[in-house]
Amino acid sequence: MTAFAGTGNLAGWQWMFLIEGAPTLVLGIAAYFLLVDGPSNAKWLNEAEKRMLAAETTAPVDRRHQSFLNVLRDPKVYVLASAYLCIIAPIYALSFWLPTIIKSTGVTSTQALGWYAAIPYVAAAFAIFFGGRSSDKRRERRHHVAVPALISCLCFIGFYFADSNFAVTLACMAVATGMMWMANIVFWAVPAEYIKGDAQAGAIALINTIGLSGGFFGPSIIGWSKSMTGSVYPGFLLMAAMLLACAVIFLLLRLRPRTDATLLKESTIAAGMYRAK
């Protein structure tokens, strides 16, 4: 923002928005021409891979989620949405308030502030890659969400005790950001594996809508904390509590998608028990 300020009669923040938006525009155009409508049209898949994907998309699914009304009646969908909200609120809170937090440690240069604020997102890039890879390799989701959420909680508590120490504060923010984004990216494998019916897209949209309300509440809570107490610490301690709640939810939650075969087995058992009576 400092280097481009005044160029072309635009403010530095305007140049930042233009430069950040340009790659998204290019990606949107590229996606239109490069993305295909289905596995059968993907040139990078061989015939065996196409058949495998086609078989997966036509496999028996859980009839509980065949309609969006069924999704609305499933309490576990709301549990997942609540857990997601507990991830999103701290992510947005830290994203909005990170420059202010770094500045409070004594950093005055706008350029230096920008570089320091980028460090947590470098950590997030590594956490997303290696966390997602570990989760897929081990075929495990719960602990790959709960443990990062718990670590992020501890980092926010560490930020409270850092007392504006620059190195400790930045380290806590970097680890917290990385772990929150790891939990966020692995989280979305859970609804996709649990909800298998025709209403899967609607269910995911519902979870996303409820969870993203945290994008409003997170930064707002920090703002209210700053206005009422003169400090952001109480607000971030509340964010730590939300991350702890997310970790507890995922450690206790048991999700098992049921296929038609499972439902048939269950109904057969139930019928046998009824006849036995």
Question: What this model shows, in words?
Answer:
The longest helix is centred in the first third of the chain and has 30 residues, at 75-104. The chain folds into 2 domains: 1-59, no CATH class; 64-255, Growth Hormone, Chain: A, CATH 1.20.1250.20. By secondary structure, it is mainly α. The chain is globular. Helix 4 (75-104) runs antiparallel to helix 7 (166-187). The chain has helices spanning 12-34, 47-57, 68-72, 75-104, 110-138, 142-162, 166-187, 189-194, 200-212, 214-229, 233-252, 260-276.
Task: Tell me, briefly, the overall form.
Answer: globular
Query: What is the mean pLDDT?
Result: 87
CATH class of the largest domain: Mainly Alpha
Task: Note the run of SSEs as H and E.
Answer: HHHHHHHHHHHH
Task: State the distance separating the first and last CA atoms.
Answer: 77 Å
CATH superfamily of the largest domain: MFS general substrate transporter like domains
In short:
The chain has about 280 residues and is mainly alpha-helical.
Secondary structure blueprint with pairings:
Blueprint (H helix, E strand, L loop, with lengths): L11 H23 L12 H11 L10 H5 L2 H30 L5 H29 L3 H21 L3 H22 L1 H6 L5 H13 L1 H16 L3 H20 L7 H17 L1
Helix pairs in contact: 4-5, 4-7, 4-9, 4-10, 4-11, 5-7, 6-7, 6-11, 10-11
Features:
0% strand, mainly alpha, 12 helices, disordered C terminus, 2 domains
